[in-house]
Design a protein that fits this description.
Elements (H helix, E strand, L loop, with lengths): L17 H33 L15 H13 L2 H13 L4 E2 L1 H8 L14 H14 L4 H9 L71 H12 L4 H9 L3 H4 L10 H18 L9 H15 L5 E2 L1
Antiparallel strand pairs: 1-2
């Protein structure tokens, strides 16, 4: 008798309770395997673009100019819990503008990011460099689009921001102690929350394992764009995480605050890490031609933003 002729017992049919037990064991094993494969793939993906770059050329904050140092001093002194609650309220209370993604990219183009020691290019060029690097490596279309839009939250600057300290730069949690792995950690001494009886403690208002979703990250372009893209696009969870956490260097690059992660965050961290080199190291690539690339990206935008006009 060939094995195919054996009375087929579908694993998912609960004949005597055994089959279901086997099934759940099998599913667990498959899930573990899948997670391992995914992690391996993410590691490989991460290294592809990483490998060619000389990392000592980027994010050298000790040698950075005063513009960058002053920016971070101001940001670290002013990003408090109280400010963050207010910023979130303001955000929810109105629509700032209505325009397409491409119009937003053009509007953003006049901004030169004061926090960035690595580029003096305009934002549209940085966005295209990131997207093109992702596309060159054969990554999925949703990730290419993520590269294209990831910094569009800097539009906040044009809608009543108080300078750039609440728009650009690395992010960090507020409501708990500021970790030493944030750049220029000493500048937090001037932050009113630094010595607060709760916000100044290790866990502050959070509990370990609460999940990054429940951590209030300093307000700026990541959080703002995350909410807009979540509501108005069909981009996947990995894309949303790349947008929301791409400036959270203390977490994705320095390994701080991992005690707050929940299970879902592990996969998201891998996604953010896979994205990071395309954001950071593409800054040394050739300057892309906006007009040549525009048709390709207009089509890509339409694929994931069903409504052409976005509420900003
Ligand atoms: O200066 C940069 C820039 O503002 C980026 O857009 C941000 O994502 C980085 O975290 C920051 O270091
Ligand atoms: Fe950014
Ligand atoms: Fe960026």
């Amino acid at each position: 008798m060939s094995p195919c002729a054996v009375d087929p017992v579908p694993l998912y049919e609960d004949r005597d309770g055994m089959a279901l037990e086997n099934l759940s064991d099998n599913i667990d094993a498959v899930n573990v395997m899948k997670a391992d494969m995914k992690r391996e793939k993410a590691m490989k993906e991460r290294s592809e673009f990483d490998a060619e770059k000389d990392k000592t050329k980027f994010r050298q904050y000790e040698e950075a100019c005063d513009r960058v140092k002053n920016f971070y001093r101001e940001q670290h002194e002013k990003q408090t819990v109280a400010y963050n609650l207010k910023a979130r309220n303001d955000f929810k209370s109105k629509t700032r503008a209505e325009m397409t993604i491409w119009q937003a990219m053009e509007k953003l183009n006049t901004l030169i990011d004061e926090s960035d020691p690595d580029t003096s290019l305009s934002q549209i060029e940085h966005l295209l460099q990131s997207a093109e690097a992702i596309r060159r490596d054969g990554k999925p279309r949703w990730m290419q689009l993520t590269g294209l839009i990831h910094d569009l939250g800097k539009l906040l600057f044009f809608y009543g921001a108080d300078g750039q300290w609440d728009v650009v730069g690395d992010t960090f949690p507020v409501g708990c102690a500021f970790d030493k792995r944030i750049i220029y950690p000493d500048t937090f001494k001037g932050n009113p929350d630094h010595d607060h009886p709760i916000y100044g403690t290790k866990n502050g208002i959070y509990t370990p394992g609460c999940g990054m979703d429940n951590i209030m990250l300093s307000w700026g372009h990541d959080e703002y764009l995350y909410h807009i893209v979540k509501e108005q696009s069909t981009l996947p969870a990995e894309s949303l995480a790349m947008i929301r956490y791409h400036s959270f260097y203390p977490w994705h690059s320095a390994g701080a605050y991992t005690e707050f992660m929940d299970e879902h965050d592990h996969a998201m961290l891998e996604a953010v890490r896979a994205f990071n080199p395309y954001d950071l190291y593409s800054k040394s690539d050739d300057v892309p031609s906006v007009e040549v690339l525009k048709p390709y990206y207009l089509e890509l935008i339409d694929e994931f933003f069903p409504k052409k006009v976005i509420k900003w």
